[in-house]
Amino acid sequence: MVIVNGKIFTMAGDPIECGFIRTKGTKIAEVGDMKDYIPVKDEEVLEAAGAGIYPGFIDAHCHIGMWEDSLGFEGDDGNEDTDPSTPQLRAIDAINPIERSFKEALEGGVTTVVVAPGSANPIAGRICALKTKGCCIDDMVIKENLAMKFALGENPKLTYHTKGQAPTTRMATAALIREQLAKTRRYMEDKESAAEDEDLDEPEFDFKCEALIPLLKREIKAHIHAHRADDICTAMRICKEFEIDYVLIHCTDGHALAPRLAEAHASAVVGPLINSRTKPELAGQTIDNSAVLSKNGVKTAICTDHPELPIQYLPLSAGIAVRGGLPYDEALKAITIYPAQICGIDNRVGSIEQGKDADMVFFFGDPLSVYAKPKLVIINGEIK
């Protein structure tokens, strides 16, 4: 298929005012200006005159399919709150891909989602990235072990306070995380020593430590739920101690720490932006957060935290960030190329470039406005 005469917002450079996109199977085969277009015999041609063409939108932090729409406990599979340390859990095993929110995501132009366990546990489990079209999760996955979810602040405290067990303070939450990371580091060292010396036995298999080894080897990142400024600083402190790469999730008070975050080369996923200050650690919430972070050089993506905010309102959230002072081009990047880069999946998604997945969204008008609706969505080279 070849798409012709559209304005292409590649997110890899300046827009192409009148261009073409050629796809082959699930991939983008060619992108260029119409003056360089050469027709191919028997090729399906899709006319896009007057449309703006954008990369499929990416939600860098959500729980789609883990808390199912219109259900209570029966559809709640995001928090295993019987143990505060559960790194061995995998989000991929909890997602229902035929839950109707996936259809709504796709209709809203969201073609890629990063799905994490909830924030009840200080260490919650593995995060995955997947496409929003399909009926079997194994066919939708982009990256099964994308990151490890951690949580600081009120959520772990509240969860375990009601059970009368630790952690019930921020001190205990941080200590529990440190303990598990230190144990994993020793476990990893013992495994490596045994591999080098046949006279040494390997340590007894530990499922939790095995799950955290990729993190300590810096093969994956920590995604850390942290709203308040002190929690953000604790996250950075722990990651520095254990030499871990990390992304700050929510980062509600990031605006108060923006120069410090920039100096540390931190990345942030901000959101949800359309909600009330429903708990104490949201007291500093402001819609100019992403603008302040961006101005200070902090790479920032925008998320819905679905189901906190329905996922189809991701582009509207980017529009709210523009209202808060984020430059329009940066807002587009915050739901396309920036989340792809932050999450390490920009080799496949986030921009319209040769070799990347053929995920595209067509709009007539402003995609970040309250009334915007995609005219057409293409995912994996197929029209939705």
Can you describe this structure?
- 50% of the residues are buried.
- Helix 4 (170-196) crosses helix 5 and helix 4 (170-196) packs parallel to helix 6.
- The chain folds into 2 domains: 1-55 and 351-384, Urease, subunit C, domain 1, CATH 2.30.40; 57-349, TIM Barrel (Alpha-Beta Barrel), CATH 3.20.20.
- Strands 1, 2, 3, 4, 5, 14, 15 and 16 form an 8-stranded mixed beta sheet that branches.
- The mean pLDDT is 97.
- It has helices at 101-107, 137-140, 154-161, 170-196, 207-216, 229-241, 254-263, 289-295, 314-323, 328-333, 337-342, and strands at 2-8, 16-24, 27-33, 45-47, 52-55, 57-62, 110-115, 123-131, 141-151, 221-226, 246-250, 267-270, 299-302, 360-363, 376-379, 382-383.
- The protein contains 11 helices and 16 strands.
- The longest helix has 27 residues, at 170-196.
- A hairpin with a 7-residue loop joins strand 1 (2-8) and strand 2 (16-24).
- It is an alpha/beta fold and 384 residues long.
- 28% of the residues lie in helices and 24% in strands.
Q: Could you give the count of β-strands?
A: 16
What's the Cα radius of gyration? 22 Å
Could you give a short account of the major beta sheet? 8 strands, mixed
Total count of helical runs of at least 4 residues: 11
Q: Please give the CATH architecture of the largest domain.
A: Alpha-Beta Barrel
Q: Provide mean pLDDT, rounded.
A: 97
Given as residue ranges, the uncertain stretches (5+ residues, pLDDT < 50) are: none
How many domains is the backbone divided into? 2
> What's the CATH superfamily of the largest domain, by name?
Metal-dependent hydrolases
| Percent helix range | 25-40%
Quaternary structure: single chain
CATH top-level class of the largest domain: Alpha Beta
InterPro entries: Amidohydro-rel (IPR006680), Metal-dep_hydrolase_composite (IPR011059), Metal_Hydrolase (IPR032466), Metallo-dep_Hydrolase (IPR051781)
GO molecular function, one term: hydrolase activity, acting on carbon-nitrogen (but not peptide) bonds
Domain Amidohydrolase-related: 53-383
Protein name: Imidazolonepropionase
